[in-house]
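Customer escalation, tier 2.

The customer says the design service returned an amino acid string that "doesn't look like it belongs to this structure." They asked us to rerun it and document both sides in this ticket. The original structure tokens are below, unchanged.
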């Protein structure tokens, strides 16, 4: 499914730039080998005003997840979690994973493996001696 920002009043260019800003915000956290949260990601998007709990945020994260999946990479959005409470991704993360063909019985195990794969792929090298 090709996502776009038209339902949110965005041009294709605004959508593409906002999506890349979301991706870059997540990659910055991944490089530091740390989790990030919806509010932190939203605050790094300058193209559009992005509420961290909005449908637009969900669609942007879904689009990033789809792009990474198509490129054969692990779920970059796995490191975007609730800041408080369970500190896990929202239910949309698991719904998207299943819609992309991931199969798992234990959501937590699937998520934890994706997080480790992201840190391995995008995290800065460990320089400890």
């Amino acid at each position: 499914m090709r996502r776009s920002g038209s339902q949110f009043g965005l041009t294709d260019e605004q959508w593409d730039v906002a999506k890349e800003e979301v991706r870059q915000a997540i990659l910055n956290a991944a490089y530091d080998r740390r989790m990030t949260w919806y509010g932190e990601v939203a605050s790094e998007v300058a193209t559009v005003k992005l509420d961290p709990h909005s449908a637009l945020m969900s669609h942007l994260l879904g689009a990033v997840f789809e792009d990474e999946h198509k490129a054969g990479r692990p779920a970059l959005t796995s490191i975007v979690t609730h800041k408080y409470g369970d500190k896990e991704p929202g239910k949309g993360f698991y719904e998207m994973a299943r819609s992309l063909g991931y199969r798992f019985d234990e959501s937590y195990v699937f998520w934890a493996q994706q997080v480790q794969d992201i840190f391995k792929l995008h995290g800065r090298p460990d320089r400890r001696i």
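Tier 2 assessment: The sequence is consistent with the input. The longest helix spans residues 12-31. The two ends are 46 Å apart (CA to CA). Sent an explanation to the customer and offered a walkthrough call.
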